[in-house]
Amino acid sequence: MSTAVTTYQAPALDQVRILVVGDVMLDRYWFGDVSRISPEAPVPIVRIEKREARLGGAANVARNAAALGAHAGLLGVVGADEAGTQVEQLLHGGGIHSYLKRDEAISTIIKLRVIGRQQQMLRIDFEEPPSDTVLRNKLMQYKALLADYDVIILSDYAKGSLVNVADMIAAGRAAGKVVMVDPKGDDFARYAGATVLTPNKSEFRHIAGSWSGEEQLTAKAQNLRAELKLDALLLTRSEEGMTLYTEKEVFHTPADAREVFDVSGAGDTVIATMAAMLGAGAGWNDAVQTANRAGGIVVGKLGTATVTREELFG
């Protein structure tokens, strides 16, 4: 008598088409050695030994989607400068379709991190908001691209690229797309009508206020979800894991316990993984559990990093 063996079928992420729209950045890392304190001020001297550039912000979301095997496109704004060209090159190298707008009036957003002995010593930010003309052109192109993609991720870092976010959500939902938003700022009303919002604890607290227990948190989350007419709200809770609130249920998944090395970019990995899973036909709970697992893997890596399909599904 033979016994049937059930094998796990990994989702067909390579069939999913994800369009990421938002604030595009270039993350630069300068690695060095720290051996003494400056004689000029009580600060460490970092002697730079290696430099590295990675996609940041919305570009890191697209990078994460592509690393999972999904077809990823990126719509955003960079400057007509050397950093913008480097972003284009990194997108090309990562197999990401670029719809970047080059804005002559601004410089590309750069986050420069100085790392000494595997610890971040300093971060320097260079940023300017895009011009109105470029943003209007971007909205027109967004609407033209909708037909080519299954899932839309609006990655808001409050740098000015998503001033038209309400129009983008409305157009995306009207086209029958899953529209996911990683929110920022003190006004979530502009995200009304999205499929799902993915705030972290501090972002949610800023909007809804503090809570004294799980029951009060659930009430606040469900009130916000209903008020904004969302299908779901995913609250990412660091060491407490993640909680998904829908009209029918509250689904909690505990943190994937492992050593936390660097949390930068973990939210990008979570939303990209969830988008890929939903696009492949997974249910809410399965998508959240997989995204939680991906977030647990990526915090064990230095800087803005990605997770592969092999790491997720073995």
TrEMBL record:
Keyword Kinase (UniProt): yes
Molecular function per GO: heptose 7-phosphate kinase activity; heptose-1-phosphate adenylyltransferase activity; phosphotransferase activity, alcohol group as acceptor
Ranges of residues in domain Carbohydrate kinase PfkB: 18-306
GO cellular component, one term: cytosol
Coiled coil: none
Keyword Kinase: yes
Entry keywords, A to Z: Kinase, Transferase
Protein name per its UniProtKB record: RfaE bifunctional protein, domain I
